[in-house]
UniProtKB/TrEMBL annotation:
Protein family membership: Belongs to the 4-toluene sulfonate uptake permease (TSUP) (TC 2.A.102) family.
Compartments where located: Cell membrane; Membrane
InterPro entries according to UniProt: TM_pro_TauE-like (IPR002781), TSUP/Inactive_protease-like (IPR051598)
Keyword Chaperone in record: no
Span of the signal peptide: none
Organism: Aliarcobacter trophiarum LMG 25534
Keywords, in A-Z order: Cell membrane, Membrane, Transmembrane, Transmembrane helix
Lineage: Bacteria, Pseudomonadati, Campylobacterota, Epsilonproteobacteria, Campylobacterales
Membrane topology: Multi-pass membrane protein
GO cellular component, one term: plasma membrane
Protein name (database record): Probable membrane transporter protein
Pfam family, one: TauE
Residue intervals passing through the bilayer: 6-34, 41-59, 71-89, 96-113, 128-158, 170-189, 195-215, 227-244
Length: 246
């Protein structure tokens, strides 16, 4: 099982670095197929995201200037939202969590399909209260379904706040640091964390995230958008299949 978990970590880390996501959208379906219950998969996913998001954001910060300002504001809101998620998670049936996950994926596919592959980054300072509120809302729902929040945040950054797609994914991964730490603390307090499995997958993800970021930097914008859409469609298909056969 340890080798399987390490492989899960490598795959999840690569997708985290390349797509700027926490990795829950990839890891949770794999864990479900491997026999873990939904709430167990959510707990493991949250711990993995702490590893991949911190290291991935460190690598991104070397290439992207101004990553921290909006990221910190969004992240502080997400941390508060993530803390609330541990209260909601135990009271929600597994099947409803899976339905919510599917709705998030459908929303992301639809909005990204309409968004341009590349656009000029708008740099004026955003309203800090709006950013914090967005982070709070995304943090609650993301941690309740075991994802870092980038799947929900990415279309908002690209369409509403007008960020370039690649920069938005980097900001999304930075955002995951806060939401995942908040979710980790909350899940641990309520006794739902699986530390051993989460640590193994998290360590494996460090290697994957390095290569994911390197390849993203060399990918053209139009091709990158297609990859992001394909990823979400693939995960959506897996989750629909798993839910129908729940």
């Amino acid at each position: 099982m340890e080798f399987e978990l390490i492989a899960f970590g490598l795959i999840t880390g690569f997708t985290s670095g390349f797509f700027g996501i926490g990795g829950g959208s990839i890891l949770i379906p794999m864990l479900l197929v491997a026999g873990f219950a939904m709430k167990e998969a959510v707990a493991i996913s949250i711990m993995q995201m702490v590893f991949s998001s911190i290291y991935g954001s460190f690598l991104n910060s070397k290439k992207i200037k101004g990553l921290f300002r909006d990221g910190i504001i969004l992240g502080l809101g997400a941390s508060l939202g993530g803390l609330f998620s541990g209260y909601f998670l135990p009271s929600i049936p597994d099947i409803y969590l899976q339905y919510l996950f599917i709705l998030v994926l459908i929303y992301t596919v639809y909005t990204l399909f309409k968004a341009p592959a590349s656009q000029e980054v708008v740099q004026p300072d955003k309203n800090i209260f709006l950013l914090a509120f967005i982070g709070f809302c995304v943090g609650i729902f993301a941690m309740s379904i075991g994802i870092g929040g980038s799947l929900m945040l990415l279309p908002i950054l690209v369409q509403f706040l007008k960020y370039d797609l690649k920069i938005a994914t980097a900001l999304g991964l930075f955002f995951v640091i806060f939401s995942s730490i908040g979710g980790f603390i909350s899940t641990s307090i309520y006794g739902n964390m699986l530390y051993y499995e989460g640590a193994i997958i998290g360590i494996g993800s460090l290697f994957g995230v390095y290569f994911g970021i390197k390849i993203k930097e060399k990918t053209q914008a139009t091709s990158y958008k297609k990859f992001v859409l394909l990823l979400n469609l693939f995960v959506l298909g897996i989750m629909i299949y798993k839910t129908v056969n729940f």
